[in-house]
Design a protein that fits this description.
The protein is α+β, with helices and mostly antiparallel strands and 665 residues long. Strands 7, 8, 9, 10, 13, 14, 16, 17, 21 and 22 form a ten-stranded antiparallel β-sheet that branches. A hairpin with a 7-residue loop joins strand 7 and strand 8. Helix 5 packs parallel to helix 6 and helix 7 runs parallel beside helix 8. The protein is globular and about 75 Å long. The protein binds 1-deoxynojirimycin. 1-deoxynojirimycin binds next to loops.
């Protein structure tokens, strides 16, 4: 009976053959544009992907090398099962309120033809915006606890596309993205974004990285066939697995325009639904911090004459936050254990003992009175065992004092002196922190993380993460700071992995410590970044004194951190991007538009606004003579009434920007 049903489903799925005359199992996206086909050839299993009449992936082989044997040979397809799914789910926070999750699925069961007859299945999901697939290991006699030495998943790209990537061994993913053809790549991290000659935009990444190692990609023998390279344990193994068990989803967004990469929700859809029943305590917001002052060496993390985290200083920051509507104040260096080289002595950190000049009880009481919360800080120096030993007591302490968000940090090349952040060891640790924090109603902002994979759908207390070369490089990077094009690339690369704690909003570009390093943008671009770079906890990075008497600060204090809708009127990777977002809590829209080192004029038709309505547009643009190298400060503020028929002319200076709020009248 089951066999008959499966054959029936197979017939349904296979309404389009992969190649003329082929009987390979296949599935198409709900809109019919993307097709995945699966087959077996000389005992090896492969899949192919097409979009309309274009080949996206040629035969790409699947399988594993296990500790004691290969698991990619002598395989045959034993069963194929198709199904369809459609739902719309609501996000507690995000770039839009609701997400459509609609796909056709093909489950392919595979078994060794002889010998141990071990089995796995590959489950493919085909969406209108791309594909995802994962391995499932069912319970079976001859595969119980096993060790993956290599995952052999391939992406045999149809051509040698242009790519944007960072190397696999980038420190905490904090590298500049560079472009190269696929075959010239070294081993690179995902998300890996590509542009094809026939006008497609592709991004390979993964979704729901759970108890597994992060995926990296490496070209096989200098070709455009990419092969998976999992981040290893220090002992060389990649993943300790158990059957039944599953791998993360391997994903590929397939888009016709760069902006559509950003609008894809495929990664979130491939994560499990929310596991937190009551999410009312999870609240996006904007925060400031006793932070840039450390990077500018006005303050120290350690105790001493320049200690930043004093009760008095924190109360000053709380007053400022209350006055300007920030929900949080981050304070780093509040706790015992900051050594001279804390990146090597992370096990000295206490997460429950405050320095004597930081009165946690007094500060949090004062903050509550002012309707502001302290944002906690747990720098671990990569000593995860020390941290895990204190995890419950640390979060319990914060919960007792009403601290509902914590920035965690892992500055050290290896965790516990040994394991990579992106290894199974790191993945296990980061998940433990998220789940423990949820128990204590604490939101997480994870710095030096493993690359995000959409876990915030399941654990929406995972708000934002670093894993990027952020604004702090404009404080101390020896190469002078982030180049102008950087923020026109990361929305299409790292940004596709999830929210980024980039910390835009620096207003004073002079750098007393490294005079040759500084923010390489105009001020208007700093404003626009709070719309362009999405983070549900969005920081205004500068010291509070640098915001005094700056009328343009209004854009930062008004810009929401939670949206009901996002549209991308125009974008070109590495050159410019304009994003429009609708506030989750009002009828107002906000636009951020930024450019690389080239100045440019662009038209922005306001077709995203409600038809027939009038909006007051408040425009913050590069002022007369603005130019990022020599004259970054001029900002012009303009007000005018607009409708959806209006076309704005945006004039962006070199590394400049425009930020606009549209207040519905
Ligand atoms: C690196 C983080 O990215 C930065 O924001 C923080 O100030 C330092 N670590 C200290 O924790």
């Amino acid at each position: 009976m089951k066999q008959a049903l499966n054959l029936f489903l197979l017939a349904l799925i296979c309404f389009t053959a992969c190649t003329p005359g082929s009987k390979d199992p296949s599935a198409v996206s709900p809109d019919g544009s993307i097709r995945i086909c699966v087959g077996a050839e000389e005992g090896k299993i492969y899949y192919t992907v097409n979009k309309d009449d274009k080949v996206v992936l040629n035969k790409s082989f699947l399988g594993f090398v296990l500790k004691d044997s290969e698991f990619n040979k002598d395989l045959e397809i034993t069963n194929v099962e198709g199904s369809s799914f459609s739902e719309t789910w609501t996000q507690p926070w995000g770039e839009e309120a609701t997400v459509d999750n609609k796909y056709n699925q093909l489950k392919v069961d595979v078994e060794e033809a002889a010998g141990l007859k071990r089995k796995f299945s590959v489950v493919f999901r085909v969406f209108d915006d791309g594909v995802g697939f994962r391995y499932e290991f069912p319970e079976q006699e001859n595969l119980k606890d096993f060790i993956i030495m290599d995952e052999l998943t391939e992406f045999a790209l149809a051509d040698n596309h242009k790519t944007w990537s960072i190397p696999y061994d980038s420190k905490y993913y904090e590298s500049l993205y560079t472009t190269a053809p696929v075959n010239e790549l070294d081993t690179v991290c995902t998300p890996l974004t590509m542009e094809t000659k026939d006008g497609l935009y592709l991004t390979i990444h993964e979704a729901n990285l759970t108890d597994y190692a992060a995926m990296n990609l490496t070209p096989e023998n200098k070709t455009s066939v990419l092969r998976t390279y999992l981040s290893p344990w220090s002992t060389g193994e990649k993943v300790f697995m158990k059957a039944p068990g599953v791998s993360p989803w391997r994903t590929m967004i397939i888009a016709n325009k760069p902006g559509d990469l950003i609008l894809s929700r495929l990664m979130l859809n491939l994560n499990e639904p929310c596991k937190i029943e009551d999410t009312s305590w999870i609240r996006p917001g904007r925060y400031i911090g006793i932070w840039w002052g450390m990077h500018m060496e006005k303050y120290t993390w350690c105790q001493g004459p320049k200690h930043g985290a004093t009760t008095e200083n924190t109360m000053k920051y709380i007053d400022f936050a209350a006055k300007h509507g920030f929900s949080g104040v981050l304070v780093e260096g509040w706790n015992d254990g900051w050594q001279n080289d804390w990146t090597k002595e992370g096990d000295k950190f206490s997460f429950t003992k405050a320095y004597p000049d930081f009165d946690l009880a007094k500060i949090t009481k004062y903050a509550a009175m002012k309707n502001v919360r302290l944002v906690g800080h747990h720098e671990t120096g990569g000593a995860t065992r020390n941290y895990e030993n204190q995890l419950d007591s640390a979060f319990a302490l914060y919960q007792r004092y009403g601290v509902n968000a914590v920035k965690t940090g892992y500055v050290s090349p290896l965790l516990d002196g040994k394991e990579m952040h992106s290894s199974q060891y790191g993945v296990r640790h980061f998940r433990k922190v998220i789940e423990t924090a949820a128990k204590y109603h604490v939101m997480i902002d994870n710095h030096e993380p493993v690359m995000p994979t959409g876990l915030q759908r399941t654990w929406p207390n995972l708000m934002t993460q670093e894993g990027v070369r952020g604004q702090e490089y404009d404080a101390w990077s020896q190469d002078g700071g982030n180049p102008p094009e950087h923020t026109t690339i990361i929305p299409f690369t790292r940004g596709l992995a999830g929210p980024i704690d980039f910390t835009p909003g620096t207003f004073n570009f002079s750098n007393p410590v490294f005079p040759n390093t500084r923010v390489q943008t105009t001020i208007a671009k700093q404003l626009a970044l709070s719309v362009v770079i999405y983070s549900p906890l969005q920081m205004a990075s500068d010291m509070i004194e640098n915001y005094e008497n700056r009328p343009e600060f209004e854009f930062i204090t008004s810009c929401p951190a939670n949206w009901s809708k996002t549209v991308i009127p125009d974008a070109k990777i590495g050159e410019y991007i304009t994003i429009a977002r609708k506030d989750r809590d009002s009828e107002n829209w906000y636009v951020g538009s930024i450019t690389n080192a080239d100045s440019r004029n662009m038209s922005l038709p306001l077709t995203f606004l409600d038809k027939g309505a009038t909006y007051k547009a408040k425009i913050f643009k590069d002022g007369k003579g603005a130019e990022y190298k020599t004259n970054p400060y001029p900002v012009e503020i303009q007000e005018l009434d607009v409708t959806s028929d209006t076309v704005l002319n945006l004039e962006l200076a070199t590394s400049g920007g425009t930020a606009v709020m549209f207040l519905k009248q």
